[in-house]
Amino acid sequence: MTNAESVGEQAKTVISSSGSSAGSVAAGTVADVPVLCIERLRVEFHLPSAKVVVLAGINLSVREGEIVGIVGESGSGKSVTALSIVGLLQPPGVVTGGQILFFDTNLLALDANEMRAIRGNRISMIFQNPRASLNPVFSVGKVLREVLLVHSGLRGAAATARAKELLADVGLFDPAEVLRRYPHQLSGGMAQRVMIALALASSPQLLLADEPSTALDVTIQYQIIQLLSQLRKERGLAQIVITHNLGVIAELCDRVAVMYAGMVLEEAPVEQIFDAPLHPYTRGLLTARARTEATGDLESIPGQAPDLQNRPAGCPFHPRCGEARDICRAVVPQLENAGTSRRVACLRWKELA
Amino acid sequence: MTDLLLDVTGLGKRYSVRRGIFRHRDLVAADNISLTVRAGETLALVGESGSGKSTVGRCILRLETPSGGHVFLGGKEITGLPDSEVRKLRPHMQMVYQEPLESLNPRHPVGKLVAEPLLLHGIVPKSEIRNRVIELFRMVGLGEEHVNRYAHALSGGQQQRVGIARALAANPRLLILDEPTSALDVSVEAQILNLLRDLQRRLQLAYLFISHNLAAVAVLADRISVMYLGQIVETGPTHEVLSNSFHPYTRALVSATPVDHPRQSKQRIVLKGEATSPIDPPAHCRLAPRCPYSQPICTDTVAELASVTPDRFTRCVRFQREHIEGVWEPRMSDPPPSS
Predict the structure, then answer these.
(1) CA-based nearest residue to B288, from B231, B239, B331
(2) Alpha carbon distance B325, B109 (integer Å)
(3) B201 inside 8 A of chain A by CB
(4) Which of B314, B289, B317 lies closest to B303, judged by CA?
(5) Least CB-CB distance to B256: which of A22, A219, A302?
(6) Dihedral of CA A163/A164/A170/A174: which sign?
(7) Nearest one of B311, B261, B249, B254 to B286, comparing CA atoms
(8) How far A62 CA sits from the closest chain B CA (Å)?
(9) Per-residue confidence in pLDDT tens, chain B, 339 aa
(10) Would strands A105-106 and A93-102 be described as parallel, antiparallel, or unpaired?
(11) A-contacting residues of B 237-256, CB under 8 Å?
(12) pTM exceeds 0.90
């Protein structure tokens, strides 16, 4: 907390009327090349007492230049999805079905060595708590040069030059100084920028961001959102952003998947989700969130997310859903097309629309 | 003003920090903080990490000893009272914490945790305790079946309800809510905010709501005080402050809050860099080095919190001077100067 802070002079006065970024940018830059395609992915936790289904066959795809948001509450399976993609799912978690295609490669069929060649290389990750992901005994420079050696074979002056370039790319003002710093000498916002620089060192084709701005102050959160948005714009970097914050989704994403109890309940372009949500859960989430112009009581969703060990029969949301009928208690809804670009898993969506 | 339940004037908290081997310098965590909360009213204390908002809460509860200033609770000064006297006042002011699981003892059923303050302060006879615990559980939307559960067996929302029941057990008049919904999911946050509003109406509770989340503040708070580097920089009615801020820092906070809808366009004011050091801060405006509106006057003048309209206060020197002269009134709709 000393003059350390002043080095982080990343952000200048910026005037922009963003917010509409998602739709407008996407229109021009999204190519129709699927970078990642998750099909019928099923994950179970094999506990001594029971086998618990945590992902009940989810489908999701990300195209080049596209940012897909996964929004959901705790226990919805959004982080398990991310861990499955990069092969970091730990026991008792077991993938029991489906495939994850990264371009033409099924990631689930790779052995540990092959996966290692992709993870942190062609697919990079950033996490919620950036400082916890950095080794405290290595300086930023040492870590960054190491990554550059492994991924691009760069050494010495060439590696240092490239490292500085990467730090400058993520908006750090004094790269030479940042290279000398240790993780504890970085503020939260700087640490997340360093993590993003590390993630970019290997020129990835897909970036997985798990709650990238949640632990940060709101002014710093906005700077990180801007940075991720810029990576899409300038490099066409495909991204999956996992968050519980619908505001972050509105700022950043082209498409959104709403997850609940290990299922994707709705998937649509971001504006359609906010304009006309089809699933009662999505509608509930949107009206329940506190907003700065809010007055009076909030319309909350009653109850809480189900215990996955006692998954309700039928639609997992039915115990909390004001629209639930007998059929919802009996039949598990499948994700079905609802128009050309969106899908929903609700038995009654047509009646309710 | 007899209805002021909490009246804080000039509260300060300094920590001595070592710089090198011999030198000690002051870290000013809270600097000349004045605020009031009436019965049935919510004042939000808003700021980012390191702004000192939690320190203020802890000093009011006397979990920390303030370095200066006065705290009056119900007209009675509590600063300077010995610990034994403060302990007698604790039932009147209680705290609800951000992480309910960390503030609840995992070894006891939650019913016992709520019974503890009842026993400690001798609030109801022993024979009545179980009934009172069940009554408190009902008040926060829990049932009798939850009384014998352990904290880890409850969901996050239920844990926070237990935290609130425990705080209510001693019949407090003031609750200090330290980020009570930050760790909760969206749908559960709404339930807890509604519960807090409902309890306030029924019990005429005064809330000091410490938060960095402007959306939650808008739902719960009548008035808002914005803190930056240990100082209050703006105070006023919540919706006025959020829609027409009189301090550039408030404007930056409001503008950094994510949009509600992907098509919403928002004026963005981005501050340069990150917060400067709270060690030996200058007398002039602490935001000046980062402020897009800053002018020489901002570093030449002592920045004092002053009223601009009867119920609104700002520490922005430019705003104070130019508001009086009718020159510069930054509204959220005005673009910041291009520098």
Answers:
(1) B231
(2) 63
(3) no
(4) B317
(5) A219
(6) positive
(7) B249
(8) 19
(9) 457 899 999 999 999 887 777 778 888 999 999 999 999 999 999 998 889 999 999 999 999 999 999 999 999 999 889 989 988 888 999 999 988 888 899 999 999 999 999 998 888 999 999 999 999 999 999 999 999 999 999 988 999 999 999 999 999 999 999 999 988 888 899 999 999 999 999 999 999 999 999 999 999 999 999 999 999 999 999 999 999 999 999 999 999 999 999 998 888 887 887 778 888 888 899 999 999 888 899 999 999 999 989 999 999 998 888 887 766 655 544 555 544
(10) antiparallel
(11) 239, 242-243, 252-256
(12) no
Q: For chain B, positions 290-319, list CB contacts with chain A under 8 A.
A: 292
State the amino acid at position A12 in one-letter form. K
Using CA atoms, how far apart are residues A346 and A324, in angstroms rounded to an integer? 10
Answer whether B2 touches A (CB < 8 Å): no
**How big is the CA angle at B161 (ends B160 and B167), to the nearest 5 degrees?**
90
Is A215 an 8 Å CB contact of chain B?
A: no
Name which of B186, B213, B226 to mutate to probe chain A: the one with the most chain A Cβ atoms within 10 A of its Cβ.
Answer: B186
Q: Which helix (DSSP H) or strand (DSSP E) does residue B175 occupy?
A: strand B174-178
Distance in Å, alpha carbon of A117 to nearest chain B alpha carbon? 36
Give the contacts of A213 (CB within 8 A, at least 6 positions apart). A192, A220, A221, A224, A225, A243, A245, A248
Residues 6+ apart with CB under 8 A from A272: A341, A342
Interface of B with A in 90-119 (CB under 8 A): none
The complex's ipTM works out to: 0.86
Distance (Å) from the alpha carbon of A118 to chain B's nearest alpha carbon: 33
Sheet (strand B42-46) strand order: B93-96, B174-178, B206-211, B42-46, B223-228, B231-237, B312-314, B306-309
Nearest to B80 by CA among B92, B93, B69, B90: B69
**What residues pair up with A210 in beta bridges, in sequence order?**
A242
A290–B190 C-beta distance less than 8 A: yes
Query: Within an 8 Å CB–CB cutoff, is residue B183 touching chain A?
Result: no
Please list, in sequence order, all residues whose beta carbon lies within 8 angstroms of the beta carbon of residue B84, skipping any fewer than 6 positions away. Answer: none
Q: What is the DSSP string of A205-270?
A: SEEEEESTTTTS-HHHHHHHHHHHHHHHHHH--EEEEEES-HHHHHHH-SEEEEEETTEEEEEEEH
Tokens describing residue B96 = 């609800």
Q: Residues with Cβ < 8 Å from A84, sequence gap 6 or more?
A: A41, A43, A55, A93, A95, A100, A108
Nearest alpha-carbon partner for A252 in A266, A273, A276: A273
